[in-house]
Amino acid sequence: MQLIKVPPMILVGQYDSPVTRRVAIALHHYGIPFARDTRSVFSEAAAVRTISPLTRIPALVLDDGEVLIDSAAILDHLDELVADAALMPASGPARRRALQMTALAQGTLEKAGAVVYERHFHPVEARSAVWLDRCLGQARSGLDELARRLATPYACGATLTHADVMITVLIRYVQDRLHEVLAPTAHAALINLAQHCEALPAFRAAALSDFEQMPQG
pLDDT per residue over 3-57, tens digit each? Predict the structure, then answer.
């Protein structure tokens, strides 16, 4: 009997997008094979829009052609596939803690990203100083709160969760793009957690390639 080879999922997006990278890390951690579509939302926006109508990444094309968008929705599907092996506790206080730490890290990333995009797409004279100050303050506050809530050895305690993945991709992003909000002393525990996670196989497998860099502004 001839076996029919099922095409792998396709992850759309480059790893300079932290939320795309968090999905890739989960896929590697779960041992789910996938192919990549690394077309750029900057230089190849029209092509990406045919897959993701908002021209946002990540998108995950399933083996039957269905397209999932938004990293949280994608991870929810992957968690369902792996059941008890999911990087999210199933219920109770442990689940709420992991969800809240993940949300706090993602919200911090959104504020850092807002600063990066304001600086990248607007010339100095067109930038809103009020908006930049607000977002910078929110990013610092988010990092401060993450550091305050951080457990050991992982963000929520004994085991790796999506919170660790989100914090790690956040720290990499701010180190690369907005290092001014990262305090070496106050945020040392977050930096150390990220360094530890970056050495894990799933994180190494989703390392950024040289071409996966947002154009410098």
Answer: 445 568 999 999 999 999 999 999 999 999 999 999 988 889 999 999 999 999 9
pLDDT on residue 112: 97
130, two tokens: 């009020």
Let me know: does 39 contact 48? Beta carbons within 8 Å: yes
| ∠ CA 60-159-91, rounded to 5° | 70
Distance, in Å, from the CA atom of 75 to the CA atom of 144, rounded to the nearest integer, reads: 26
Looking at residue 209, what is its pLDDT? 85
- pTM above 0.85? yes
Q: Under a CB-based contact definition with an 8 Å cutoff, are residues 204 and 198 in contact?
A: yes
